Every structure is written in structure tokens, then in C-alpha cells.
Amino acid sequence: MSSATTLKGFKRDGRIVIVGASLAGLRAAEALRDEGFTGSLTMIGDELGEPYDRPPLSKQVLTGWVPAEGTTLPRRRDIDAEWLLGVPADHLDLATNHVRLADGRRIPFDRMLISTGVRARPWFVEAEAALDGVFVVRTREDADGLRRAMAAGPSRVLVIGAGFTGSEIASICRERGIPVTVAELAPAPLVGGLGAMIGEVAADMQRAHGVDLRCGVKVTRLEGDAQGRFRRAHFSDGSTVDADVAVVALGGIRNTEWLRDSGLAVGVWGVACDSGCRAFDVNGLVTDDIFVAGDVARCPNPIYEYRFISLEHWANAVEQAEIAAHNMVSAQADRWPHLSIPTFWSIQFGVNIKSVGVPTYADEVVVTQGSVPDHRFVAAYGYQGRVTAAVSFNNAKWLDHYRQLIETAAPFPPPCPTPDQPADAKPVPVDFPGPTLLAQGATVVVTGHDPGERRVTAMRQHR
């Protein structure tokens, strides 16, 4: 769009396609209409039904507070869109600006937003994953099925993976008096997202609430009975556990396979884009008609030295969708960057865990306020001498203070703003696991240049 006249015509008559009809996609569509876009708007989604909220699935739905069908996202306004639901996109043609659906239909566009999000990582043996009683939690159907299985009074639930989702499910089991075993390959729960020190706190919390927590072991096999019902799990240390329900909580897989041959810069961490949400192609060039938002976006953040960051956070999906929508219908000089500080929350075992910033972008961590044994404290994270994140346990009121420290690149360790600083507070190494475990347990992943992603080699001609 090189002129005001052309841009005005696009806002009036242009064609925008949004692939991914969940939170980011819906909020982007609403923002487009708010921005004055009156052209054709098409929403493509692989699930049937209206967009719904996912965080309640592992929280309120499993407790029975909210029915699965009660998670429909509220509409801020009418978006006047064509909805193509129940059939996923399976190819993007940049040469002709078409999206191909799995049923063969080709949908033309002038500009497109990719907001396909993530799906649950399934159990690695298909026959075992199909056993009655084996669940993942990503969709409404997943959550409703698990809720019914838990309501039936299982003798024991096995949770495979002690990241945020797995830990929340274990917490709900204990609230309902259900025996639960949690298996985690890492040394402790939440290590992939928050590091070893917080992981030890999380482990103590789980064991104090009666969780049979087994760390440093891998589930090697899920065993079923003659009727195809899950009955037993086998571990890498030779032990077994009998259970009626298994929940596979091994993180998510970003939905990018349909883009592999598109020419975009796509990988396991998502679709690379600039801070204005414009997608990069495989040569590192910005595409002006393809935008990305939500869990599938891999975006550089200047606060974190322009490293590419992939986020699985609700607030980030909303903010990024609104930035992308604005930029899709704005001239270059009027576009906005996506520069927000990530936030995240989780409730486990009666403790409200909240974070600000990017804990995985750190080399040290220190408890700056409160008491770790009481599970009421704040821990600050630092990288090379400056504050990069903070995590609170039942002490979230100070997180705005730490947000300011992050935004101003304040020195680490930071001074404590209250009298409750621990007397022996000393920074310790943050100690995150390797990339394999990080992919399963973290909701924020920071990545730089990966030599394995190199696709173009410059050849010097010799004369």
C-alpha cells in the first residue's frame, strides 16, 4: 500500500483471511472492523463451533465450576465475516495469494493473518494414546471427557508432565480427593518455565498436598486391559503404577506444518515475524501481506536484545492480534510495534503463581521478598546483571514494580522495595533444562539464530 488512496480502497474493498479462529483470530477480526476495514473478512478454523477460551479448560472446567460449553469467547462486536470451520488449511501459496483447505477449496486474499496456535503434544505410541482413559487437554472435548472421567471416581490419575497444565491438573485431583501420580523427566515441576529453584518449591508444594511426584523418570509404556482401557504405566526406572486415567501434559506443538513449503520462515518454535507482526520469508525478508499473532508467532523483542520469543500466553495473543490488525490496514509510518512485557498466571494447590517478563531469559534468580517456606514470596530473574523477569507466589501486588525494573533495564539483583527481604537473599544460577525439556514445560521460549534453520548458502564465484 504505497498511497493513501490505495490504502483507503483496500480498507473498503480488500480481502483479508484469518487462518486460526480462536482467541487471537477473533480479537484480530474485531480490531479490523474497529479500524474501519469494511472489506471481505474470512475466518478459517479446524474446529467446529464458535471460538472459545482455553485457559479455563485446565482450571474451571475440570473443577466443574464452568461447563465446557460455557467457555465461548464473548463477542465485542459483530465482525460480519464468512466462517469456514471444521476444515483446516493445508497450504499457503504466496505466488497467487491463496490458502488451500484440506477439502481442496482455494480461498483468495489480499492480506492474511496466521493465528493457528498450538495443539497438544500427543502420547508417542498411537495405540497406547487411543486407550480408553488416556487424555490430553487442549480442546473443549478433551476437557469435558477428562472431567467426566474424574467425576467417575478413578482409583488413581497419572499425569505425565509437570509443567503448568500438568501441575494444575494434579492440583485439581487433590482438591477432589483423587490419588494422583505425576511423572516428570526433569528434576522438578515447572523447571522448564521457571528454573530449578522455583521447581524445588513446586515439588515441595505437590508432595505436601499428597501428590506421588516422581521426577527424573520417563513413562515408557501405557498398558491397557483386554477391553482397551488404560490400567498401568511403566517407568524408565523399572517401576509401575496402576491407574484408571492418564493425562498427557507434555506441552504443545505449534500448528505450522501446513506452511512448510510456503516460503515463510517456519520452524518448531513458530512463524518468525518482525515486531510489527509481519512474517519473514526463508531469506529473512519481510512479507508485507502476511501477518502472524498468538501462540504460533515468533517475534523479536527489543527488551530482550531482539531475541525471537515464542509465547503461549492469553494476554499476549490478544495484544499481538490487535497490533497485527492495526498494521494490516495502516500505512508504514502509522504502524505499531508489539513491545509488551509478557504476563502469566496459574493457580495450584491454593497458591496463586504470577509472572512478569521472560523467566527463561535469565542466568540468575534471587528471592527478593517474602518467605519461600510459607509459599508467599517474589523471585527476581536477571541476565548479565539486569532484571529480566519476576515470579510471585501469593504476592502479586508487587509485580508492577518489577515490570518497571524490566522496562528500565534495572541492575540485578534489584533492591527490595519492602522490609520483608530475606536476610540471606543471594542470587543462584537459574538452571534451566535442555531444549527438549524446555519445549515441553515452558510457556515462554527465547530463541536466537539456530544453525539448523539455515536454508540458504551464499556461494562465492571464483574466476
From TrEMBL:
Location of the FAD/NAD(P)-binding domain: 15-321
InterPro entries tied to this protein: FAD-oxidoreductase/Apoptosis, FAD/NAD-bd_sf, FAD/NAD-binding_dom, FAD/NAD-linked_Rdtase_dimer_sf, Reductase_C
Keywords in alphabetical order: FAD, Flavoprotein, Oxidoreductase
Domain Reductase C-terminal: 344-414
Cofactor(s) this protein requires: FAD
Protein name: NAD(P)/FAD-dependent oxidoreductase
